[in-house]
Amino acid sequence: MRLVIAGGHGKIALHVQRLLAAGGDAVTALVRNEDHFADVTEAGGVPVLCDLEASDVASVAEYLTGADAVLFAAGAGPGSGVGRKDSVDRGASALLADAAERAGVRRFVQISSAGIGRTTGDEVFDAYLLAKGAAEEDLKARDLDWTIVRPGRLTDEPATGAVRLTEGDARDGAVPRADVAAVVVALLGRPSSVGKTYELISGETPVQDAI
Fold first, then answer.
1. What would you report as the CA-atom Rg of the chain, rounded to the nearest whole angstrom?
2. 8-state DSSP, 4
3. CA gap 106, 191 in Å, rounded
4. d(CA 189, CA 133)
């Protein structure tokens, strides 16, 4: 399999690259900063310089040509304001989906967030949830083989290999980024997950059994 990841230097994305590279799969990582190329290469990915906030559909589609699947793992990140929550967490996802359609890549996995549809009173965080929700709705309206994963609070703890993965029935909870990556890798090759939105937190079920 050849996977293209948007947000290729993100922590979840790097975990995904390590898992896929260990299995002999190829990963192209879209990265906005050349200083991050070494980290991507170490993780087993092939870095490509691509700023989704400054790119157009045609140029992104070129990177996707010949891919088997696309993963949207990008985010504006801590410290970003309301504007970038929209331009990255929503806008970049929509651009990547446009590019996937143009390149003929049907499989699209989107990493979203728990809490979609809620408001917290924090202007920036609410803008983040709004942008993630809008990105989900954009993807669901497309003729793509999409799957959406909504992880709970992300941690950098080691992988546990055990999760709680459900459609709806959201519960508050945390999950290591390494376990999110393991779930994403498992979902990529699971046709039965197409058209589904999953809530993900740590649990007691082994990843392969939870999928």
1. 16
2. E
3. 12
4. 25
Say how far apart CA 29 and CA 138 lie, in whole Å. Answer: 23
Residue 77 CA to residue 48 CA, distance in Å, equals: 20
Q: Residue 13 and residue 5: Cα distance in Å, rounded?
A: 7
Model confidence over 115-164: pLDDT tens digits?
A: 998 899 989 999 999 999 999 999 999 999 999 999 999 999 999 999 99
The residue assigned the tokens 């990493």 is 111
3-class SS string, 160-210: CCEEEEECCCCCCCEEEHHHHHHHHHHHHCCHHHCCEEEEEEECCEEHHHH
Q: Tokens standing for 3?
A: 């996977």
3-state secondary structure of 38: helix
What distances in angstroms separate CA 73 from CA 107, 112, 180, one per listed residue? 14, 8, 11
3-state secondary structure of 47: strand
The length of the chain in residues reads 211
For the record, the structure tokens of 92 come out as 């970049």
